[in-house]
Design brief:
heterodimer; A: mainly alpha; 0% strand; elongated; B: mainly alpha; 7 helices
C-alpha cells in the first residue's frame, strides 16, 4: 500500500526545516548555499507529491522549474563565494558586511 | 507502513541533518548527495520517474558537483574544520535547533491529522505526459526559465573573472 499524501508532506516539511536550521546556525557561506539547496529540494518533493495526488503532470513541471532555479542560484552563488574568498580570504558571512546597511 | 517510501525518507532526513551540521565541507557535500539520491528514490516511489532521473542527473550530478569543484578551487584545509568547530558551539545552535524542533512538531500536528489521510495513487506520470504539458500550456514558463539560465550564465561569467 502506498503512503498517504500527508506523510510525504510531513517528510518534505522536515527536510525544509532542517535546511532552515542549517541557514540559521552556519556562518560558512558554502553551508548556507547547501542549506538553500536542501530547502528548494524539499519544496520540489512537495510539488511532486501533489502532482501524484491529483494525477496531473503539473507537479513535475514545477519540479523542473525549481531545478532550473536551483541551478542558476548555485552558479551565481558559487561565483559570489569565489569572489568573496578572493577578496576577504575567508568564507565567513560576517566578513562581507561592509555596506553598514 | 510503506517501507519503500519510509526507508529513503529516513535516509534523506538523517543525511540532511549530517550535511548541515558537518564540520568538513566535502563530507557535508557527500551527505547532501546521499540525501538527494534518497529523494530521487522517493520520486520513483511516487510515480514520477522523470523527476527522479532529473534529480539524479541535474541535482546530484551537476549542481553538487559544481559545489565540489568550488571547494576544490578554494583549497580549504584543516584550518577550515578547526574554524567550523569554533563557530559551531552549542550556544550558537541550541536556540535555532529548539525553534526548528517546535516547527517540526507543529508541522506534524497540522499536516498529519488523525483520520484525514488522502491516499496517493500507484499511477505513473512518465516523461511523455510531462513533455506534452511542458511544451503546451507551460511554454511561456519554459522560455522564462531559459532566460533565467542565460542571465545566470552571464552573471556567473562576469563574477568569476580574475581581475
Amino acid at each position: 500500500m502506498i503512503v498517504p499524501f500527508e506523510q510525504v508532506l510531513f517528510v518534505s516539511g522536515v527536510l525544509f526545516v532542517l535546511g532552515l536550521m542549517g541557514i540559521l546556525i552556519r556562518r560558512n557561506i558554502l553551508f548556507v548555499l547547501m542549506s538553500i539547496e536542501v530547502m528548494m529540494n524539499s519544496a520540489a518533493l512537495a510539488f511532486v507529491a501533489a502532482g501524484n495526488r491529483w494525477g496531473q503532470p503539473d507537479g513535475q513541471i514545477m519540479f523542473i522549474l525549481i531545478l532550473t532555479l536551483a541551478a542558476s542560484e548555485a552558479s551565481v552563488g558559487l561565483a559570489l563565494v569565489l569572489q568573496i574568498f578572493r577578496r576577504f580570504k575567508t568564507l565567513d558571512t560576517d566578513a562581507a558586511s561592509e555596506m553598514k546597511g | 507502513m510503506d517501507l519503500v517510501f519510509w526507508i529513503p525518507a529516513l535516509v534523506a532526513i538523517v543525511a540532511t541533518l549530517l550535511a548541515v551540521t558537518n564540520y568538513n565541507p566535502v563530507h557535508g557535500l557527500l551527505y547532501l548527495i546521499v540525501s538527494l539520491l534518497a529523494v530521487a528514490l522517493i520520486f520513483f516511489r511516487l510515480g514520477a520517474p522523470f523527476a527522479g532521473i532529473l534529480e539524479v542527473i541535474v541535482y546530484a550530478g551537476a549542481i553538487v558537483v559544481l559545489f565540489v569543484f568550488v571547494v576544490m578551487m578554494l583549497n580549504l584545509g584543516d584550518a577550515v574544520v578547526e574554524q567550523e568547530k569554533r563557530w559551531l558551539k552549542p550556544r550558537v545552535w541550541a536556540g535555532p535547533a529548539v525553534l526548528c524542533g517546535v516547527l517540526i512538531v507543529e508541522l506534524w500536528r497540522v499536516v498529519w491529522p488523525a483520520g484525514a489521510t488522502h491516499p496517493l495513487s500507484d499511477a505513473v506520470i512518465d516523461a511523455p505526459h510531462v513533455g506534452v504539458a511542458l511544451f503546451g500550456p507551460y511554454l511561456l514558463a519554459v522560455e522564462l526559465a531559459s532566460m533565467m539560465l542565460l542571465a545566470a550564465l552571464v552573471a556567473a561569467f562576469h563574477l568569476g573573472r580574475h581581475d
